[in-house]
Amino acid sequence: MTIDYKWRDDFDNADVNALHAEGFNHKVLDDDWKRQLEEHSLGWVSARDGVRLVGFVNVAWDGAVHAFVIDTLVTADARRQGIGTQLIAVAQAESRAAGCEWLHVDFEDNVRSFYFDACGFTRTNAGLIAL
Ligand SMILES: CC(C)(COP(=O)(O)OP(=O)(O)OC[C@H]1O[C@@H](n2cnc3c(N)ncnc32)[C@H](O)[C@@H]1OP(=O)(O)O)[C@@H](O)C(=O)NCCC(=O)NCCS
Question: Looking at ligand 1, which residue's alpha carbon is closest to its atom 12?
Answer without folding.
Answer: 82
